[in-house]
Specification:
It is built from 18 helices and 4 strands. By secondary structure, the chain is mainly alpha-helical. The protein has a single domain, classed as Growth Hormone, Chain: A, CATH 1.20.1250. The strands form 2 sheets. A two-stranded antiparallel ribbon has the order 1-4. Strand 2 and strand 3 form a beta hairpin. Helix 5 packs antiparallel against helix 15. The longest helix has 37 residues, at 348-384. It is globular, with a radius of gyration of 23 Å. The model is unreliable at 1-12 and 237-243 (pLDDT under 50).
């Protein structure tokens, strides 16, 4: 590497800041806790609210997801470039400032998506316009503006790879805490039984629940802001020496590790969010009791807190990619087994057990995945001499949103394929036997196949296995020391 490149990647910890510790890990955990008070709420209830309460056709909701993700391709990457290129005042924070500015707007935008009075409007077009406008405001604008800097911030909290792995675990813990609250507590409040004895989603209760989640999101963001320190300050490049935006993006999009991780993320999100999107329909329609969703989520989430200790050990002992690949294959096999067992409507508890086991395997991968991103950023540094933390994270974030959109689009389309009736759902009536059987098939087979494919991608395509990551660390350490090693650990 040239001296110019070596200078461009120089990063020094701020000695004036307190040492990295538990306060940072807890604070970073609360950041994702805040994110997921709006993200998981949208993932689990948005489509269900607009089909069963407002009366929007599933295909129209799915189309919204697809269009929004195309828009996010510009807003996510644009936000990443903005965060990377916007000047920072001496002693200022590159990433934390965005949490302070956007916490309240993203919470308000989330609450607006679940206003039950929209169901009373006579105009179907007006309902669709409101749904789309509030969804774009939340997902493509405010959520992007807070999530990109939050996710990128891990690389400047500490330069130690072990610290970053711990941040990944605590971030996933925050997500699981939000999932536990939303998926276990909310169903007990928002699902009711109508006069015909059919389990339904109550619109006004959903509005109240979404508003409470918005307030809690702001509280969590405040705890993140107050407890996390940015210690690694990127040295600004002299004017004219930095890579142009086009050249920088071209370099990032040829990063094999990033591209294959994006592929794995797309398939994972497609399967897992499809599963989450179908969960409400499964318990309401197939098992006939929406409140069972609360039990299922508690059973699937509580064991995952053991991964706070187990996941870092597995990643260190066997390698992050190796551990994730095995876990995903096992999870997919469990869900496919649930389908072939053909459990009937009276065997909900058996299905919940199998679902919980599958979700535990997914959690193993998810507890490690944010450390995958810092590995990819390190590899980008090795290849080019520039980290571009926020832009790399933005591309990965957009890929996750594409997976979310594909899952939403597929969920809406799949419900249409099996003949799901919005009119019957809105009226609190039971679906046909064909629809009931179709829902059970979809909730098991689609995510089961996707999870196995994620394992295949990690096994055979993702290049940053345990040995390659160790080589990267060695190269970067040698570069900072002024010595030289082979620049590409994959060669």
């Amino acid at each position: 590497m040239t001296n110019g490149v070596a200078e461009s990647v120089a990063q020094q910890p701020d000695s004036a800041k307190r040492p990295f510790g538990m306060r940072d890990k807890i604070g970073y955990m609360f950041g994702d806790f805040g994110n997921d008070f709006t993200f998981i709420l949208q993932m689990m209830f948005f489509m269900l609210f607009y089909t069963n309460v407002v009366g929007i056709q599933p295909g129209h909701v799915g189309l919204l997801f697809l269009v929004a993700r195309l828009v996010d391709g510009f807003t996510d990457v644009g936000m990443g470039i903005l965060v990377d290129r916007l000047p920072v005042k001496p002693g200022g924070d590159k990433f934390k400032r965005w949490i302070k500015y956007i916490a309240i707007p993203v919470a308000v935008a989330s609450a607006l998506m679940y206003m039950s009075f929209v169901a009373d409007w006579e105009s179907y077009t007006l309902k669709v316009v409101y749904m789309a406008a509030t969804y774009f405001l939340w997902g493509s604008v405010t959520y992007t503006a807070i999530n990109i800097p939050y996710g990128s911030m891990a690389s400047v909290i500490s330069a130690d790879p072990d610290h970053r792995a711990q941040l990944s675990v605590f971030r996933s813990t925050g997500a699981n805490l939000a999932m536990l609250v939303i998926s276990s507590v909310l169903p007990l409040f928002v699902y009711t039984t109508n006069a015909e004895g059919v389990s339904v989603l109550d619109g006004p209760r959903m509005t109240i629940a979404a508003s409470i989640c918005a307030v809690l999101a702001v509280v969590c963001y405040a705890l993140c802001y107050l407890n996390v320190e940015e210690r690694i300050e990127s040295k600004p490049q002299p004017k004219g020496e930095g890579a142009g935006i086009g050249k920088m993006l071209a370099s990032i999009t040829t990063n094999k590790a990033l591209l294959t991780l994006i592929l794995a993320a797309l398939v994972l999100l497609l399967g897992n969010l499809f599963l989450s999107g179908m969960l409400g329909y499964t318990f309401l329609t197939y098992f006939g009791n929406g409140k069972l969703q609360s039990l299922a989520q508690m059973a699937s989430l509580l064991p995952t807190f053991a991964l706070i200790l187990l996941a870092p050990w597995l990643g260190k002992r066997f390698g992050k990619a190796e551990t994730g690949a095995v876990a995903m294959v096992i999870g997919g096999a469990i869900l496919l087994s649930a389908y072939f067992l053909h459990l009937d409507q009276n065997q909900a508890i058996v299905w919940i057990v199998l679902y919980s086991l599958a979700q535990f395997t997914v959690a193993i991968f998810n507890f490690l995945v944010w450390a995958f991103i810092t590995d990819v950023i390190d590899y980008q540094d090795v290849r080019t001499g520039q980290r571009d933390d926020a832009t790399v994270y933005a591309l990965y974030s957009w890929a996750r949103k594409v997976g979310q959109a594909l899952a939403g689009g597929l969920t809406g389309a799949a419900l249409g394929w099996i003949g799901f009736s919005v009119e019957a759902a809105k009226a609190g009536q039971q679906q046909s036997e064909e629809v009931i059987s179709g829902i059970y098939m979809l909730v098991n087979v689609v995510p089961g196949v996707c999870f196995i494919l994620v394992g295949v991608v990690l096994f055979f395509l993702y290049p940053l296995k345990k040995a390659a990551i160790a080589k990267n660390v060695e190269i970067l350490a040698a570069r900072r020391a002024g010595t030289s090693l082979a620049d590409d650990p994959l060669k």
